[in-house]
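Design request, C-alpha cells follow.
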C-alpha cells in the first residue's frame, strides 16, 4: 500500500517507520510548510492518507483528501466542533474517512472498560473525575482521549449533563477533567471514583507512541477499500 503522511512530526515519523516495517511505501510525507501540496495528491499513486497535524489545519486537510478521492485517517484532536460537517461532506461525496481520538488498541479497550464501569457505578454515591497527563508540546487540553472517556461516562451516568476542564469539581452535574502537561510523557489517563469509604480507579499509561502509530497504520489498511465514516469500534468490532 502507498501512503501519504500529512503531518511529519514525531508521530508522522513513527507512522512512517511502522508502515515501512509492515511492507508499505510512503508516497509523500508533508510537513506543515508543505500542506499547500495536499490539493495535488493523486489517488492513482496514493492508496490512503494518514493525517496527524494541528486543530487549525485538520478540517481542510481531510476535506482535500476527500476531494481527491483518497481515503483519509485522522488522529488530530481539538477540532471536533467541525466533525459532523466533515462527516456529512464525506458521505455526500462518497469519500472514506476514519477518525479516532486515540488509535491505540489498548486505549480503545480502555474506552469499553470505562463505559462498563460507568454503568456499574451510575447508581452509587461516588464522586468522579478524569485526570490526563501529556507531553508539554501537546497543544489542546483536555486531550481527545479524555473527552472520549468523559463522553463514555455521560452516556452511562445520567447524573452528569456535561464535562468541564477544571482543577476541582464545583458542580454536581459537571464531570471534571484535570489536564497536566509534563515533559516527555506520551500519555496517561485515569478515571477516579472517590467516596469516604474507598476509591476505585482505572488507568491507562502509554509507554511510547508506537501503539498509536501502529493503530493508525492498521486503520489505513482497513479503510483503503471502503467508503463512509468510521472509527475504532468499527475496525475492532468492540
Amino acid at each position: 500500500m502507498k501512503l501519504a503522511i500529512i503531518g511529519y512530526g514525531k508521530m508522522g515519523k513513527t507512522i512512517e517507520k511502522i508502515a515501512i516495517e509492515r511492507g508499505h511505501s510512503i508516497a509523500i510525507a508533508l510537513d506543515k510548510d508543505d500542506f499547500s501540496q495536499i490539493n495535488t495528491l493523486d489517488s492513482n499513486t496514493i492508496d490512503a492518507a494518514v493525517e496527524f497535524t494541528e486543530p487549525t489545519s485538520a478540517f481542510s486537510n481531510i476535506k482535500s483528501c476527500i476531494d481527491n478521492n483518497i481515503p483519509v485517517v485522522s488522529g488530530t484532536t481539538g477540532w471536533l466542533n467541525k466533525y459532523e460537517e466533515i462527516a456529512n461532506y464525506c458521505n455526500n461525496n462518497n469519500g472514506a474517512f476514519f477518525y479516532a481520538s486515540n488509535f491505540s488498541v489498548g486505549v480503545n479497550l480502555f474506552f469499553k472498560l470505562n463505559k462498563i464501569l460507568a454503568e456499574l457505578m451510575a447508581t452509587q454515591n461516588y464522586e468522579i473525575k478524569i485526570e490526563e497527563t501529556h507531553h508539554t508540546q501537546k497543544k489542546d487540553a483536555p486531550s481527545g482521549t479524555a473527552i472520549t472517556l468523559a463522553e463514555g461516562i455521560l452516556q452511562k451516568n445520567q447524573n452528569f449533563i456535561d464535562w468541564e476542564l477544571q482543577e476541582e469539581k464545583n458542580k454536581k452535574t459537571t464531570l471534571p477533567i484535570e489536564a497536566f502537561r509534563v515533559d516527555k510523557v506520551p500519555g496517561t489517563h485515569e478515571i477516579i471514583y472517590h467516596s469516604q469509604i474507598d476509591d476505585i480507579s482505572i488507568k491507562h499509561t502509554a509507554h511510547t507512541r508506537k501503539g498509536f502509530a501502529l493503530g493508525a497504520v492498521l486503520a489505513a489498511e482497513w479503510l483503503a477499500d471502503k467508503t463512509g465514516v468510521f472509527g475504532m469500534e468499527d475496525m475492532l468490532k468492540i
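Comment from the thread starter after seeing the answer: thanks! The mean pLDDT is 93.
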